[in-house]
Design a protein that fits this description.
By secondary structure, the protein is mainly beta. Helices cover about 0% and strands about 40% of the residues.
Length: about 290
């Protein structure tokens, strides 16, 4: 578990602890990641949810300053009904025991669930070019699990995504790729993430990435994701049942499994446009895509 005095994980994607596929693991210390250079020493605070000062996660995000850490209780599968907007550099950690003395996302499950259940908004929406770490949550429902369209640098670690449905062409997000995660610009490190059972009417049912410098999926598991426009009454091509990328300078897949995903159009497991990709020790199995 990362101590409160440790720096946030921002220096290089090349020196981050790895975890086995398909499961959540206790967060171990990592080197600083610094995607925008080595930061100077800055005082940061830790906010705990729930606590007398910050009883809800939204209040903690509002109260926090850039660089702070928010720790979220997960006793007994604690569920937080939220649609969050984050516009500052933060580390947000689920999986804490109620006394905040121990963290294990497998035991102390912190669930973020769509507040209205109508698949209209993302669970987490990132505004601006933030440096944001999201780790140790089960993220359920919403139009997107995580939406970042303005060039954020994201680390998503030890998270589970379930039940997202991106299935309407109405504004403000009509026709946008992605289900569990949609990003435009910036960088992404996704590590130890489990994505299953996502449905969309658009490209990339699990993940949609566009115009990004770099994206790494490490020790991830993507299964049973499908883009199926007819299901939502939308008759447009939808490519990439699991993964859709366009104009991603460097896409790296390490020990990542993509299984039983489908597209009504092309690329059941993935559809990559103008993307440089490297895959190491990965499994791609049982994809289905039409040639029409």
């Amino acid at each position: 578990m990362r101590a409160e005095t440790d720096p946030p994980p921002w220096e290089s994607f090349d020196h981050v602890s790895c975890y086995p596929c398909g499961g959540l693991r206790l967060i171990l210390p990592v080197l600083a990641l610094g995607l925008v250079g080595t930061p100077t020493e800055v005082h940061s605070d830790v906010w705990r949810v729930p606590s007398p000062e910050t009883f809800t996660l939204a209040v903690a995000i509002d109260a926090a300053s850039p660089g702070d850490t928010i720790q979220v209780v997960g006793n007994g599968g604690a569920t937080y009904f939220v649609n969050l907007t984050i516009d500052k550099d933060l580390t947000v950690q689920g999986g804490w025991r109620a006394d905040f003395l121990m963290r294990d996302p497998e035991i102390y499950v912190s669930v973020l669930r769509d507040a209205n259940g109508e698949f209209e908004r993302p669970i987490i929406r990132v505004q601006g070019t933030q440096q944001l770490v999201i780790e140790g949550f089960k993220i359920c429902g919403g139009r997107f699990g995580v939406l970042a369209q303005e060039g954020a640098d994201m680390v998503i670690r030890d998270c589970v995504f379930r039940e997202q449905e991106n299935g309407t062409d109405l504004p403000p997000f009509g026709g946008k790729p992605g289900g569990a995660v949609r990003m435009v610009g910036g960088t992404l490190l996704m590590e130890g993430v489990d994505i299953r059972g996502i449905q969309t009417a658009f490209h990339g049912a699990a993940i949609g990435l566009e115009s990004m410098k770099r994206a790494i999926l490490r020790d991830c598991w993507i299964e049973d994701c499908v883009n199926f426009p007819i299901l939502f009454g939308i008759i447009t091509p939808a490519f990439g049942g699991a993964l859709y990328t366009a104009d991603v300078g460097d896409l790296r897949l390490e020990r990542t499994n993509i299984i039983r995903c489908a597209s009504l159009s092309q690329g059941g497991l993935g559809y990559l446009e103008r993307t440089s990709v490297t895959a190491v020790d990965c499994a791609f199995e049982q994809g289905a895509g039409s040639l029409t």
